[in-house]
């Protein structure tokens, strides 16, 4: 047997276990495995300890709330005072703007802006009192960051709000005017932040979003005190057209509901199936009730005037023709001839 080289000689007094690096030896590699990963038992939390932890957390929350409660109360008091100041600001704005020659809707808009300004300052002060670390710059920064999310979440509300502002600022109608929009006719009851309330002629309340009024055509029926009305009437072909025109004009002019500031117009319009057709127009009150009342009075006056002058108002005549003779009960042959 050949002798071992010096590099491979083993000391007889050293066992294999003595050559294994110990955990405390600096030269020993770090295995990265803790005692739990090696199967050592983990001490479980008892139910009493868990309950004590939960109760401790609840106590900390309660202590923090009670410690912060005076600030919360102060914030609520500031909001209550803000509500009172907003009411006073609205009353003061109305009183100051009363002698000013502005449209009522524009005065209402200025009053609402005054209320919004008071509420904005009140909310800011209440937030700074409730949260002592909050400053106006931080609040404005947070408002700027959250404005995008708020704008996307409440897009419809903000659209209707700004549409309402523009309606109060520029639109040529006020509360009490009759308007027509998207086939709906009614009297303007109120223009709120989000919508406009209309009361139809039949009594229903229609709530219309402000954005619909802003984006669609609006017909203001009462923009003037008088509005033109038109009807058609006809006379028989055997009557004198010039005479009939004068009779109709005089009858319409004599009606109390017809405005005397505008001319009554009577024009022969067309050759009808059985009559000469006239177009009659005049001016009367602009509200729907005044229009209906005036139309009723004028039709009655024209009918009476034509009858008085023996001018015929024709109506269709029907002639029935039968292919076969129709026997009539109770008639003799002599009556039939």
Layout of helices and strands:
Layout: H1 47-97, H2 104-130, H3 136-153, H4 155-170, E1 178-181, E2 184-191, E3 195-200, E4 205-209, H5 210-215, E5 218-220, E6 226-235, H6 241-253, E7 265-271, E8 276-285, H7 288-308, H8 333-336
Helix pairs in contact: 1-2, 2-4, 6-7
Describe this structure in words.
Among the domains are: 50-153, Helix Hairpins (Orthogonal Bundle); 173-220, SH3 type barrels; 226-308, 2-Layer Sandwich (Alpha-Beta Plaits). The protein is 46% helix and 16% strand. The chain has eight helices and eight strands. Helix 1 packs antiparallel against helix 2 and helix 6 (241-253) packs across helix 7. The protein is elongated and about 125 Å long. The N and C termini lie far apart (165 Å). 13% of the residues are buried. The model is unreliable at 1-36 (pLDDT under 50).
């Amino acid at each position: 047997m050949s002798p071992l080289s010096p590099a491979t000689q083993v000391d007889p007094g050293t066992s294999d276990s003595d050559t294994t690096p110990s955990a405390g030896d600096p030269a020993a590699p770090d295995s990265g495995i803790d005692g739990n990963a090696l199967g050592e038992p983990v001490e479980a939390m008892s139910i009493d300890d868990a309950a004590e932890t939960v109760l401790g957390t609840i106590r900390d929350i309660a202590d923090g709330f009670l410690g912060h409660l005076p600030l919360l109360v102060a914030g609520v008091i500031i909001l209550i005072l803000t509500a009172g100041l907003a009411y006073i600001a609205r009353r003061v704005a109305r009183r100051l703007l009363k002698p000013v020659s502005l449209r009522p809707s524009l005065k209402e808009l200025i009053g609402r802006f005054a209320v919004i300004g008071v509420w904005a300052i009140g909310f800011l002060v209440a937030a700074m009192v409730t949260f002592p670390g909050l400053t106006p710059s931080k609040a404005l920064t947070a408002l700027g960051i959250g404005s995008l999310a708020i704008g996307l979440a409440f897009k419809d509300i903000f659209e209707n709000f700004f549409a309402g502002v523009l309606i109060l600022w520029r639109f040529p109608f006020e509360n009490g005017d009759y308007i027509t929009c998207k086939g709906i006719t009614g009297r303007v009851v109120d223009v709120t932040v989000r919508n406009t309330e209309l009361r139809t002629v039949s009594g229903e309340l229609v709530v219309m979003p402000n954005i619909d009024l802003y984006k669609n055509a609006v017909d203001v029926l009462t923009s003037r005190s008088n509005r033109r009305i038109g009807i058609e009437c006809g006379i028989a072909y055997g009557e004198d057209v010039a005479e009939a025109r004068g009779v109709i004009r005089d009858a319409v002019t004599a009606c109390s509901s017809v405005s005397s500031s505008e001319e009554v117009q009577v024009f022969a319009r067309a050759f009808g199936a059985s009559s000469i057709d006239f177009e009659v127009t005049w001016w009367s009150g602009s509200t729907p009730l005044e229009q209906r009342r005036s139309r009723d009075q004028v039709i009655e006056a024209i009918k009476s005037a034509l009858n008085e002058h023996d001018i015929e108002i024709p109506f269709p005549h029907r002639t029935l023709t039968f292919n076969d003779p129709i026997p009539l009960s109770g008639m003799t042959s002599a009556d039939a001839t």
